[in-house]
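At your convenience, could you comment on the folded chain following this short note?
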Amino acid sequence: MSLLDVSIVNVALPSIQQGLHAGTSDLQWVVTGYALTFGLVLVPAGRLGDIRGRRPMFLVGLATFVLASAACGVATSSMWLIVARLVQGVGGGILTPQNSGFVQEMFRGKERGTAFGLLGATIGVSTAVGPLAGGLLIQLFGADHGWRAVFFVNVPIGVFAFVLALLWLPAPSGSRRQESLDPVGVVLLGAAVSLVLLPLVQERTWTGSAKWWLIPAGLVVLGGFVVWEVTYARHGNQPMVLLGLFRIRSYAFGSAIGLVYFAGFTAIFFILALYFQIGRGYSALQAGLAVTPFALGSAVTAALGGRVVNRVGRPLVAAGLAAVIVGLLLTDVVLSRVTSSEVGWATALPLLVAGLGSGLVISPNITLTLHEVPVERAGSASGVLQTGQRLGGAVGIAAVGSLFFNRLANSHGDWGQAVTAALRLCDVIVFLALVVALADLRGESGAQDTEQKPAAAAA
């Protein structure tokens, strides 16, 4: 639910605008406000789960998300909806890192890979199927009430999940650690993430170039956060983010791959949703169906990848990234040649290839990234990883969206030219993620050679 709500609202925006008489700035905040608060609370929520118990934090996040969803569904003004979406993002951000923490806590070895495979399949499908789910609900309930159904659908699912969580999720065992929550670190990281994300999520709403100064300001605050965390740890305290985690090779490279890949991955659905609905006149449901092959491919290989990742390792992620690149290149070729209403059918196979590759990236990368992380740090480590993915997604949508709209304006409304240019940029970003994965493989190979030479000399 929490990841589905990142994209499901996009197709409902026209109905929301009509039903609540919302302005373009209001609509922008309905979408980006959720992403902003979601990203802000990931790391501190993960840390709270590590210290106070993941089950209580999961239940708090789920209750917050469900109640906020209901508030969204009964909204009578755009401001009401925006505030409810901000709270909904907080609930989603509390929920998400607990999932990875539970997998780390409850599974070992091959079973952990399988569990992360199912989690990765959920992440991939949730992100990709959002437009389809939103379009289907609007089709069923009509333009006037369909956008409310987009939010109300979370309520029965959330209530059911709450009951299952009470029955199945393990309660905290023993006495919980009485550690500081590092409030200064929370404030510094929150300020840094806000300063970096705001100009990106508001790129089309805030005119002028002054907004871009917020990004270097955010990086300066991020530097202050790093200094604080190091100093805080030297005084014998437990910081919110244990920076020593980045000395773990798998965690450092996996986090970098996640950040870069999500910059290209998330932007794909953003531009294709616009292209199919506005450029080709598809309905919300038809546009959702057009990108469904990507979601199906991702679901299949994510579950498979989780089962074999412990045997194959990082080469599996590199192969997945290569398949995504091939699929996007083929999609680009199809879109540049097919301009009829049959373009949705024509892109089905290339998007399936890209989806098959994506499933081999997301869940195996999560497994490999968190594999060596201590269980007591699983929540905060997962929060950092997913915060990077949210930042990457925001940067990618801003960069790819800017190119898309600029090319559309310069070509006097040539949607085909705009979408192919944007897809090529997505391909370049995914290629950069592949470069990072190959660098990791090369480093691993070098490290193994170094270990083998002393062994051979001793023999």
The radius of gyration is 22 Å.
